[in-house]
């Protein structure tokens, strides 16, 4: 959707939470950067999150299922169009345009998966690719695989790119995201016509050693009176170590009864011994509890630290009356009926940290581009151009059948056509006939003039949704934003910045 507002242009968001200084820019439409992994240690913690616990978070991550299968349509008039002369930015291995063919396809090394934590606080992934840049540190994917369009946070958390990922294997390392760049219209309006993002990443890292240990004794053996204190201690652990795998657990402090509605307290079923607290006072407690039950029935004691629940029972259950052997019930007769009294106490709740510290030793494996290369960029290309699409499709067709697992890299090939997806505010998309199912294929790279020999071409789109256009309950179309001069501007701005190492 092309805007006529003077606000247009490029927006920049960061995988982050704290503002950092930015160089002077002529284009005032570029938003100031904000960082998530804005220090080497923060980036190391992100890598540790994915490498820790035998890579459990990587292995258990699921395809990102946000805005995947949507109604789309062919567009015969209007729609996507060039805004200037067509052009390409060279790939890492070929500055001249090469020709592509659909036979004997060698898969690109640049393609992989981006992993992150979704709005549901669970690990997910999308497809993505490395693209050429001055510092060999740039990744391209769908905008909503970087920016959080569900909870409207700035960005998705713990964002990393893993080229060549396969079932927990990271052949060229993990590349932690540093900065994300997108178009202003997607950042502000979630305009589907601009649903793409370029992300700078730190140098890749591989694990050289993993050590786990129980939480330090000063924490493990310490009770925290409030949950806030326990959360503060957990945060301190997370700041001091590369990873903390664990949780805050609550425990009843049976030694301290407190009035109802006291903060950090809990009302629980209790025996006479637990309500008495002091073993020496059990006999007097039995007398007090019995009198409360017989005189007031279901009630709360005057200090509001305990109470009684009385129910009518049969003569058989009543038996001989009196206290049960476990001290949890008291039976009494009144007005020719039999009753059972049970008791509750309101006790203080303490908290502990339970889990493990994960100390992960990492080694630097170099820049992304040095390891896998980078695709070029094509923009303002003619509609009807042949492209390859590379990604990790997963999930089922609308009829319930499964064609892809999401475990291995797949490709499709065809001509682009004008398309639209009104459900995601997208009127100027391009489509391609493809059976790629939506989960997992989002972020797939569309490569123009792909050379199977060099495994390089020119990025000319990223999958943002898939569709069943003929209503036969089988996915038959993938759609992408049309890459034009404004896409080039976002790319060129992102490509200017270095990321550095994290170890």
UniProtKB/TrEMBL annotation:
It comes from the Bacteria. InterPro entries: Peptidase_S1_PA (IPR009003), Peptidase_S1_PA_chymotrypsin (IPR043504). The keyword Signal applies. Gene3D superfamilies: Trypsin-like serine proteases. Keywords: Signal. Residues 73-103 are annotated as: Disordered. The keyword Transit peptide does not apply. Residues 1-26 form the signal peptide. This is Trypsin-like serine protease. It comes from Microbispora maris.
């Amino acid at each position: 959707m092309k805007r006529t507002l003077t606000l247009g242009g490029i927006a920049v968001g960061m995988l982050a939470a704290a503002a950092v200084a930015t160089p002077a820019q002529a284009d005032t439409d570029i938003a100031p950067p904000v960082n998530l992994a804005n220090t080497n240690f923060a980036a190391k913690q992100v890598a540790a999150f994915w490498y820790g616990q035998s890579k459990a978070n990587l292995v258990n991550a699921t395809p990102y299922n946000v805005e995947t299968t949507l109604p789309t349509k062919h567009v015969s008039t209007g729609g996507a169009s060039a805004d200037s002369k067509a052009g390409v930015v060279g790939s890492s291995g070929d500055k001249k345009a090469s020709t592509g063919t659909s036979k004997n396809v060698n898969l690109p090394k640049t393609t992989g998966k981006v992993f992150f934590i979704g709005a549901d606080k669970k690990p997910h992934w999308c497809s993505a690719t490395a693209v050429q840049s001055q510092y060999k540190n740039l990744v391209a994917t769908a905008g909503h695989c970087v920016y959080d369009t569900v909870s409207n946070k700035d960005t998705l958390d713990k964002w990393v790119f893993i080229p060549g990922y396969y079932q927990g294997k990271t052949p060229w390392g993990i590349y932690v995201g540093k900065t994300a760049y997108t178009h202003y219209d997607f950042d502000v309006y979630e305009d589907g016509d601009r649903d793409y993002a370029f992300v700078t990443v730190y140098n890749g890292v591989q694990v050289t050693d993993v050590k786990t240990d129980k939480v330090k004794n000063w924490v493990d053996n310490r009770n925290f009176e409030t949950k806030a204190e326990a959360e503060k201690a957990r945060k301190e652990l997370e700041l001091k170590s590369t990873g903390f795998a664990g949780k805050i657990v609550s425990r009843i402090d049976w030694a301290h009864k407190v009035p109802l509605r006291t903060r950090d307290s809990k009302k629980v079923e209790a025996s006479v011994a637990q309500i008495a607290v002091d073993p020496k006072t059990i006999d007097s407690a039995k007398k007090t509890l019995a009198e409360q039950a017989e005189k007031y029935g279901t009630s709360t004691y005057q200090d509001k630290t305990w109470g009684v629940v009385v129910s009518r029972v049969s003569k058989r259950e009543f038996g001989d009356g009196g206290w049960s052997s476990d001290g949890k019930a008291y039976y009494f007769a009144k007005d020719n009926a039999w009753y059972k009294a049970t008791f509750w106490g309101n006790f203080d709740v303490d908290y502990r940290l339970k889990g493990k510290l994960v100390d992960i030793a990492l080694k630097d494996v170099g820049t992304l581009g040095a390891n896998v290369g980078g695709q070029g960029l094509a923009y303002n290309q003619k509609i009807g151009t042949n492209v390859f699409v590379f990604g990790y499709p997963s999930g089922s067709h609308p009829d319930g059948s499964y064609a892809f697992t999401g475990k291995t890299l797949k490709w499709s090939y065809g001509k682009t056509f004008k398309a639209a997806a009104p459900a995601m505010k997208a009127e100027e998309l391009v489509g391609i006939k493809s059976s790629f199912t939506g989960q997992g294929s989002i972020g797939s790279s569309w490569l123009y003039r792909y050379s199977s020999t060099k495994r390089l071409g020119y990025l000319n789109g990223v999958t943002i949704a898939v569709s069943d256009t003929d209503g036969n309950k089988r996915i038959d179309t993938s759609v992408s934003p049309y890459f034009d001069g404004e896409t080039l501007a976002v790319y060129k701005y992102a490509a200017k910045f270095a990321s550095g190492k994290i170890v």
